[in-house]
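Submission sheet (multi-component)
Chains listed below:
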Amino acid sequence: MAGFRRISGRVIVAVLRQLTKLGWLLILPAITLPIWIVGTDRGWLPEQILPCPGDVLHTLRDMIASGELAQHAGYSLRRVALGFAIGAAAGLVVGSAMGLSRRVDDYVRPLFTAIAQVPALAWIPLAMLLLGIGEGLKIVVIAKAAFVPVVMNTSAGIANVPRAFVEVGETFRFTPLQMLRHVVLPGAIPPIFTGLRYGLTHAWIALVSVELLASSEGLGYLLVWGRQMFWLDTVLVAMIVIGVIGFLSDRVLAVVETRLQRWRIDGVR
Amino acid sequence: MSGSAALGSLGRGLVLPVGLLLTWEVASHSGLVNRQFLPPLEHVGATAWRELASGELLEALAASLRRDLLGFVFGSGAGVLIGLLLGLSTIADRVVMTWFNGLKQIALLAWIPLISLWFGFDEMAKIVFIGLAAAIPVILNLVEGIHATSRKLVEVGDVFRFNRVQFILFVYLPAAMPSLLTGLHLALIYAWLATIGAEYFMAAGPGIGGLIIAGRERFEMDLVMLGILVVGSVGFLVDRGASWLEQRLIPWRAASAQV
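Outcome: structure written.
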């Protein structure tokens, strides 16, 4: 009975803490939303500068109901998925080769650094001249954006596997393949995953850039289109969706990353 | 021994770039690929020389760097003020921080349509956008640095009966200095990226980004390549310069990192 009371007390404290957190969170909208609503209502701000929150919500609901939003988001997500898959796969191969072999690293590193130094944004016009403005352009630009952080983290992760681990493997007279499977890869997985997470973030940013510059569908195009039509509600809806998808994908990968990190710490102990 | 090993690795590093350039040159001259897609190297060189001699390239670069610097100064200045507020005031932190973290998830370039609706296509709009890009990493890193200030340092301040300003100047800012410098370093990189982005989409006035876009529209591959080369070189120099300054300003971190 006493134990139950203690546990329920702890639950209540936790719930209260979450509620206070939520309360703090609501203060900012509680101040800004009324100002925003009254301001647009009284016409202090023209609609082209800031539409009222009701309009934005209305547009959001309309675009969800008509399937327009899902269609544009679908285009963007498909592009990111394909570009990220290609870029990350190539990055894993090249990064592993560079991490495993000093010689490969010597050959590839300078060229890789030169390519990585120029941001994806600057490559887009060159890629547009070479590839046109079709689907290929988007995939290549996104893949390049994902490729760079994956290579950097994979090669560093593999090259930095603690010397002691490798010595243990040598004591067991592991073959190179066994060494890779039982020593190098497990030791390098956390940094490799960090690289994948950065790669996905960069891929998402590159998608927005390339869709802003050359696209006739997708979330970035929605931004450009709303801008041209002076439909600020559409622009705001597109921004919100871009933010939410970016946030969710980062969150999911962050949770997986902490899991991997914990596993590594336990492993070292 | 190590000298010849270093020379060997340098030689290996040159194989791919030189091979690539040679293939490019041969492909371009033999007519295997369209010259419009891959102009011979000497054409790119001639374009670079022409642009340099006419002063156009330098003018564009100067305009871009001016914007970059103005945006960085305003953005990081605002970032330091906001970061101090969020770092020192628990109330401001609780009320604003979660919303700020959500806002920063919006890819930076997605702000451009909104900013151009609000501020037009002029210098003002570009500098606001570059400032936004610079402010975000400064705020994040400064808040983190202030929160990580050691309890002991704060107690020392209590013993001296520091007032609020003294606390900021003598306790929190020095303690947060390494994080702040990291934030400023990132801000420099983001500001340069934002400069190019702003010039792409708000193509008014001279600038390197505008040069690249013009080259693309007129299908002048050599101009585009020249622009990309300049963007990459400036980014590289800014990054290296910032790293160098960081090491000079806080040598104690470099020392502790070696342990």
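Remark: Residues 237 and 243 of chain B are 10 Å apart (CA to CA).
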